[in-house]
Design goal:
Layout lengths: L7 H8 L3 H9 L6 H14 L5 H8 L4 E6 L5 H11 L2 H4 L2 E6 L4 H13 L4 E4 L6 H5 L5 E4 L7 E5 L1 H14 L4 E6 L9 H13 L4 E5 L6 H18 L5 E5 L2 H15 L6 E4 L5 H5 L6 E3 L2 H19 L12 E4 L2 E3 L6
Parallel strand pairs: 1-2, 1-3, 3-4, 4-5, 5-11, 6-7, 6-8, 8-9
Antiparallel strand pairs: 10-12
Helix pairs in contact: 1-2, 5-14, 9-10, 11-12
């Protein structure tokens, strides 16, 4: 027996149960008595049975796979979030199929069709290209993270509070001019709240400030070129003044800091820098960078908890769909490091 794959027929012959009863053990164990469940479980040990995952998918249509679509792995936030989502396997037992969209809507649609063909049970989307209305139309549980979410369940950081924390720190540290550097973010994107939080604090305290929204590119080389040009302009306009620079994420903050070190060999005393995310680059930079921690572990945990609840509901004989999308918000944490001392 141990020289071949053990089949349901082998188990049935060994236990003197029917193949239907063996199938019920795997797919609906509660339909059997505890005594019969134990007899079959003991037989599996004796026979050295190993689950055939493919057969199980074919039998009940449940793959135990979750699809993930992310924009890129270049920005440290996404690689950090991926690490946290994948680590939830220990809690929920779901495996993951990951695609990188790279801002291409048609490619992402093809990815979703691939994922559906693999019988995924749910989908986590961090990419921004496909509207939430379309994602909701695929008729599988979907949770989005930090993107437009009108029609889907979502988990986001409190971006407004994070921006208020970052801007207030620069203000309290005596910066004379406050600057926020960000991409051209859609107002539908939760990250737009970082722009609003910055602007509101500056207006509330009548602080001199500048909001710089630009196409910063989607590669390291493009980021360096774009942020380098922005740095040139800042140094010309505000020479000799104490500048507080709040950047949209830690990747951009690290690039800005590196450019200052290349120019001056240090972080000048009239510059303070804060990023957003608390991704590993903020701690491993040439100087540890102050940042707003999004608590990626909590966001990933909340996202999987929300998705698993929907997937479990789908497995019921008469599933009850949620009446409206659920939106969860995770409180950020201000982290002071050497770039705001």
């Amino acid at each position: 027996m141990d020289k071949k794959n053990i089949t349901f027929a082998d188990i049935a012959q060994y236990t003197h149960f029917s193949k239907t009863t063996i199938s019920r053990y795997f797919n609906d164990p509660d339909s059997l008595t505890l005594e019969n469940q134990q007899k079959i479980a003991d037989a599996l040990v004796e026979l050295g049975y190993k689950k055939n995952k493919v057969a199980k998918i074919l039998a009940n249509g449940k793959s135990e796979f979750v699809g993930i679509i992310i924009p890129n792995l270049y920005l440290h936030y996404y690689s950090q979030m991926m690490d946290q989502i994948l680590s939830t396997y220990k809690t929920y037992g779901y495996k993951f199929l990951v695609f990188v969209g790279d801002r291409d809507k048609e490619i992402e649609r093809r990815y979703i069709q691939e994922l559906l063909a693999y019988k995924i049970e749910g989908l986590i989307v961090l990419s921004h290209t496909i509207p939430s209305e379309e994602l909701a139309s695929y008729d599988i549980p979907v949770v989005t993270i930090e993107r437009e979410d009108r029609c889907t369940c979502s988990v986001n950081s409190d971006n407004y509070m994070g921006a208020v924390q970052a801007t207030s720190l620069l203000y309290k540290n005596g910066c004379e001019i406050l600057i926020h550097i960000n991409d051209k973010v859609s107002p539908k994107n939760p990250a737009y709240k970082r722009i609003e939080g910055f602007a509101d604090i500056c207006r509330e305290h009548q602080l001199e400030h500048e909001l710089i929204l630009a196409d910063l590119g989607k590669s390291y080389e493009e980021n360096v070129a774009a942020i380098g040009q922005i740095l040139d302009g800042i140094e010309q306009r505000y020479a000799g003044r104490k500048k507080g620079i709040f950047l949209a994420n830690d990747t951009y903050a690290n690039i800005f800091l590196n450019l200052l070190f290349r120019r001056y060999g240090k972080l000048p005393a009239d510059h303070q820098i804060i990023g957003f995310d608390d991704s590993p680059i903020s701690r491993g930079s040439i100087l540890p960078i102050s940042t707003v921690g999004q608590q990626a572990d909590k966001i990933a945990g909340e996202a999987m908890e929300l998705l698993v609840a929907q997937m479990n509901e789908q497995k019921k004989r008469r599933p009850a769909p949620i009446p409206a999308p659920i939106h969860k918000v995770v409180t950020p944490v201000l982290i002071r490091r050497e770039t705001t001392q």
